[in-house]
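Practice problem 4.
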């Protein structure tokens, strides 16, 4: 004889299907928002990194009267990651007035890092070939940080969105003006952004 338990009732098939449908709807709503929140946090980190480098560069300038030299000046060139931001961390060139370290550590590679991409490189007062990186149109190169996306594995459209989101949070939202510029090109250096930290006298 089957024993019945008082007060116990199981879910019907219809109730289970309704519950599954509700969970599916919630997942469809929550998942994209969760991804957007993660992306926003990554962009916010990049903005914070660039602002930290700017603050450190200006403190270096206040102490020494000059900006740190280009990281490429050291052995290893553009792939010499051990020299990234070295002058902010130690007095590599025995510069008078140096009173650092100006950063606890150089910011780490971002999530879009590739073989050369996603790392911050201090460019200093930089000329690209014979063309100065001039942000205020005075004919002189201005000190800046480079963020290169070459070899990141991201599509052109994905990179364009990332850098535009950074620009909107950091600067004027226009990648051709202001202090944050984008140089989309298939030649080296690929998909490079430059953030100007100040102006030379």
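Answer key:
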């Amino acid at each position: 004889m089957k024993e019945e338990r008082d007060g116990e009732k199981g879910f019907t098939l219809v109730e289970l299907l309704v519950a599954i449908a509700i969970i599916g709807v919630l997942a469809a709503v929550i998942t994209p928002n969760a991804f957007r929140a993660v992306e926003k946090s990554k962009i916010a980190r990049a903005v914070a990194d660039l602002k930290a480098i700017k603050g450190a560069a200006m403190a270096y300038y206040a102490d020494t009267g000059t900006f740190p030299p280009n990281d490429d000046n050291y052995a290893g060139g553009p792939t010499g990651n051990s020299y990234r931001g070295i002058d902010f961390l130690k007095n590599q060139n025995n510069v008078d007035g140096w009173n650092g370290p100006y950063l606890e550590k150089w910011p780490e590679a971002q999530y879009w890092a590739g073989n050369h991409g996603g790392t911050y490189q201090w460019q200093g007062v930089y000329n690209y070939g014979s063309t100065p990186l001039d942000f205020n149109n005075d004919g002189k190169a201005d000190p800046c940080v480079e963020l290169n996306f070459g070899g990141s594995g991201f599509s052109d459209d994905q990179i364009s969105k990332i850098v535009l989101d950074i620009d909107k949070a950091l600067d004027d939202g226009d990648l051709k003006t202001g202090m944050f510029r984008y140089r989309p090109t298939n030649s080296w250096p690929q998909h490079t952004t430059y953030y100007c930290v100040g102006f030379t006298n």
